[in-house]
Design goal:
Blueprint: H1 2-32, E1 36-44, E2 49-57, H2 62-79, E3 84-95, E4 98-108, E5 117-119, H3 120-129
Antiparallel strand pairs: 1-2, 2-4, 3-4, 3-5
């Protein structure tokens, strides 16, 4: 009986130590994410059609650079006096450690049709919370 209890305690302790190791790894990976936002280039293509080109270093994946472009689009819509934007397309490239997104959005004062619409005020607030710069 003592041998079984001792074995269970050892297994429990090993599992606890293993879990502590996982938690430490997760925290370390979050601390390592320190992106460098390299800027936004904005080009009007038409009165309500806008192209955003963003670049960043240290993106974990495509989602990071896409979020940066989305933040730029949301802020731009607000600057222009519009409350909404609709995502049309985003092309992402990565070269030499720099991730780039070339995104196109329509901006409008009312909620546009489509599935990929954004409420600019909500998105800008989220960007601020995540420390993603806007225009």
């Amino acid at each position: 009986m003592a041998v079984i209890m001792s074995g269970l305690r050892a297994a429990g302790l090993a599992g606890l130590v293993g879990l502590m190791g996982c938690a430490g790894t997760q925290d370390a990976s979050e601390r390592r994410f320190a992106p460098e936002y390299l800027g936004v280039e904005t080009r009007m293509m038409d009165s309500d059609l806008v192209n955003f080109r963003v670049a960043m270093r240290g993106a974990r994946d495509e989602a990071d650079v896409i979020a940066y472009a989305r933040c730029a689009a949301a802020q731009y819509a607000l600057i222009r006096g519009y409350g909404f934007a609709r995502h049309l397309r985003t092309n992402v490239t990565r070269e030499g450690g720099i991730s780039r997104a070339d995104a196109v959005y329509t901006i409008s004062p009312a909620l546009p049709r489509g599935l990929r619409t954004i409420d600019s005020e909500v998105v800008v607030a989220d960007c601020e919370e995540q420390n993603i710069p806007t225009v």
